[in-house]
Design brief:
The protein is 40% helix and 20% strand. It is an alpha/beta fold. The protein is globular, with a radius of gyration of 13 Å.
Length: 128
């Protein structure tokens, strides 16, 4: 079963993503910011990280860069609804720093699960 780490500063987003991913058969861990996400990945590595771009403290681009450097094979999905500088699209920048896939908020479960399957190389979770 693939393990997914969700990093987002909004508790509601973490909860919704956890529910959708667990319902699809994935094991899910969550973290509320980039620093805690890095700690969680170091303590128990995930196969895939889904991270928000705009978060207080250690923001997403920095988090992606550090994850990519420390865990070179790690698959990362960046997500964003924008930020204070909405004229600049940060999702393509996230790809430059190591994200393999990006999704824009809001998104539905089908979009989320398709992105996860793609990022994991088309694999679906095993249901034992």
């Amino acid at each position: 079963m693939a393990r997914i780490l969700v990093i987002d500063d909004e508790a509601e987003i973490r909860s919704v993503l956890r529910e959708a991913l667990e319902a699809a058969g994935y094991e899910v861990a969550v973290a509320e910011d980039g620093a805690r996400g890095l700690e969680a990945q170091r303590a128990r590595p995930a196969d895939l990280v889904i991270t928000d771009i705009f978060m207080p403290g250690k923001e997403g681009i920095e988090t992606i860069q550090e994850l990519h450097e420390e865990f070179p094979g790690l698959r990362i999905i960046a997500m964003s609804a924008g930020g204070t500088l909405r004229t600049l699209d940060y999702l393509p920048i996230a790809r430059e720093f190591g994200a393999v896939r990006t999704i824009s908020k809001p998104f539905d479960n089908d979009t989320l699960l398709a992105a996860v399957r793609e990022a994991l190389g088309g694999s679906t979770p095993s249901r034992s």
